[in-house]
Every structure is written in C-alpha cells, then in structure tokens.
Amino acid sequence: MKYLGYSRTGSFTQTGGTHTVNGTVYLGDGASTKGTYVLADGQLTAGTEYAGYSGGIGSIAQGGGYNSVGALILDNSGTYTLTGGTLTVIGQVTGHRASRR
Predict the structure, then answer these.
(1) Is residue 101 a part of any domain in this protein?
(2) DSSP state at residue 8
C-alpha cells in the first residue's frame, strides 16, 4: 500500500505483523482527500512517509509498535501523533504539525 486517500478517503489500521514499503507512503493525496494510518502494533518500514500531500489531509496515529522511516514529511494538513511505541526517523522530519503526547 503506497496511497491512502488518493482522490477519496482511505484508512488503514495495523494491529500486528510487518508492513514494508519501498518508496513513499502518501496519506491524503490531492485536494478534498483524507488518508489515515493507525499503527497500533507491529512494524511499519518505509523510505518516506508523506502526510498531507498535494493539498490532502493526512494523519499517522501511532499508539504502539515500531515505525522506521527514512524521511517524515508533514505538509500543512499532515499530522503525526505518537502516544506509544517507537518512531525512528533515519533522515529528516519536515513540517510543523508533529505532536507527542
């Protein structure tokens, strides 16, 4: 899965296992779109995670598990909420809508 909310609304909840994406995960790709990824448990690995791409609304909510990403991009309408688990960003985090509770 590389796109969540491509021209529509999409969501995905991971409760275990391993999800590996070679390349970029786009959450909310395009105006009037919304993509939501919930990481409850398990492992997510991606080259880049881009929330709020091209005017869309994208969000990542991590309450558990492990997320390893090369670059994390939070556009104006992108959010990352970390309430549990481990987030490792190998490269850079860009954007201004990240929160840790």
Answers:
(1) no
(2) S
